[in-house]
Structure formats: C-alpha cells, structure tokens
Amino acid sequence: MNYLILGWLCWPLLRLLRLVMPVQRGKRLIIQTAKIGDWINTTPLIRALAPVDVVADPMNLPLIRHDQFIQHCESLPARTSLRQKLHLAWRLFRQGYEDIYVLMPSAPNTFLARLACAHRTHTLDTYRTRQYVRWLGAGFHRVHHQRQQLALDDYLKLAAIPATASTRQKHATSPLYVPATKLVEHHHRFRVGVSLTAGNALKTMPHSHWLRLLQLLEQQQATVYVFGLENERRWLEQLDIPACFPDLTLVDGLGRLKLEELPWHISQMHLYLSTDTGNSYMADACGIALINFLGPCHGAEQRPLGEQALVLSSEGQEPLSFVFQAPYKTNLTPEQLYPLSHQQWQRIEALIERQASVARSGDHRNAV
Length: 368
Description:
This protein is an alpha/beta fold. The chain is 36% helix and 17% strand.
C-alpha cells in the first residue's frame, strides 16, 4: 500500500517534469525480475523489441551481459530499500522511455513503471495481481493472463506480436557465448546433461527415478554431465554413480561453471534431463533434445516448446506451482509430486535410445 500512496503522490510532479524532459522515440524498457527459467522465456519479446533496456534480478546479469539485444540493464535485488527503489525510479525517468513492459507485475515493479512516466506502459494482469497494484497501474495497457494461457504468448501479446514458432524462439545468450575453459570432451559419443535439483525443493525428483534413468543411460554407454551448484553435491553423492553404475562415465560439473558458460556446455549435449529448471529452458533455447519432468509445475502456463522437447506431466496430480505463484514447500512427497506411468517410461526409454543412435551416427540432433 505504501507504493500506491507514494506512487500517486510523486506521479503528478513527474508528469509536469516530463514536459521539459520528453520521452525518446523508440526507446523501450522491459521489467522482468523473475529467475532464470522465466527470464529465458522473456527473450522472445526482448529480441522482437530490440534494442531494449531491462530491469532484472541480479541472478540473470551474467546472461544479460552476453545478450546483443540488450543495451543497458538495471539490477533490482529482491531485498532493496525504498530509498534505493526511488533512486532507480529517477534513473528510469531520466531515460525517457516511450514504452515500458512490466512482465512481473509486482508492486515494486509497477511502482517503478509508474514513476518512469513512459508514453505507454504495458503490463500483465494475473491471477495474483492485487487490487492496489491495479490502482497503482491505472491507465496502463493490460493483458489479462490466466493459468491456462502460455505466459510467453502473453508476453508477446503486450507488444501486439503474434505467437508463432518463429516469434517464440528463445535464447540464453545471443550470440551463444563460448567459454575459454570447456568441460566437454567430444570423444564422448553420447553426451547427456542432467540437473539433479533446483533452487526450489519442489523441483527435486525421487531418488528412485534418477536410479532408473541412470540405468537406462548406462545401457547406452552414455557420458553423464552433471550441471548445477556446489550445494547440490549431496544429491549426486546419494546416487553413488561410480559404485552403482560402473559402465557409466560421469563428468562432475557442480560448481565448476559460471552461469554464462552453461548455455554453450548444454548446447554440446545430445540429450538433457531435468525437472522444470532454468537449465531445461537453456536446453530448449539451444534446440537440444530434452526431457522435462514437470512434476508440480503447470505446463499449460510454461514449458519447453521446442520440437525436441519431451515434456512429461504428473498424471493424476493437480499442478500446484505456477509462473506467478510458486510455493517452495508442500506436504507431498517427491514420489507423489513426480508419478510416472508405464507409458511415460516407455517414451523416456525410446527417446534415450533414439538420441544414443543419433550420437553414434555422428549427428548432433534429432527431432522427438
């Protein structure tokens, strides 16, 4: 509510000031403070409107620094004082944006958009938008978003861009950033990348699922590259891959790569296995064959869209994690969150066999 009061107190003064500090024609700002997976789903809009400035979460800065479509970035940490937000609002105002697009319509983001005083401001109205945020954003052009609508399509709709296979194309870095230090050894014929978990505990599959997946990969003599943070090591150690799967080659990449180095490494895989993580969307952006285990996540709202993406929902389990409403705790067990049917396991096994065949033939990719 403080944002509402302060926003409407400051706005008339800034509107008067805008008379002597006019907007710059064609200058655009995108405000998206979500994490990696949501950020990558924002890149189709970024590319379509380029060049653009962005306000983003600090976590995404390594990717943003290697994005040719972004001119300037302002960082907005989750814990930022009101004074810092006012300083940021003033910097945005001075830029004179003609259009602002608010993709994460929180109160702080709407507050920044209000005080930036663009000629036009476009925002999403979601199932989580509170009434006082709507009042704060009065006069903004709104696109109403519901859980059954693809978030990426509604991002594009903010700029009146039709959703097609071409306009939906994502990227992690553009052009693809090639790191100086590489973990990938190309003599490994069948390279499979995996993410064992994510920042949200709900995105951790049962131990038994990983054991079965590793068994299938061992049968194909795969080299498994484990990507993630150092604090995910306990999940890797629980699998005890060297002892349980002696014919499987393991490359431990935990904590060894910077975020901007991940997309290139993922692009060198023949297959990527993950729950609904940011790495899964990196693989999708790179056009890599992937298996995305949605678990509690709502695939109708956000999912990998590539031709090589096998997206598996939890049959009989209602989704409980959404783009704009993502809990971090539940009373359900991983087994309850990630049930897989016999038919789904058959599809998994078929894709693994197919990609192993592709790898042995020397071809890097094959449609699912």
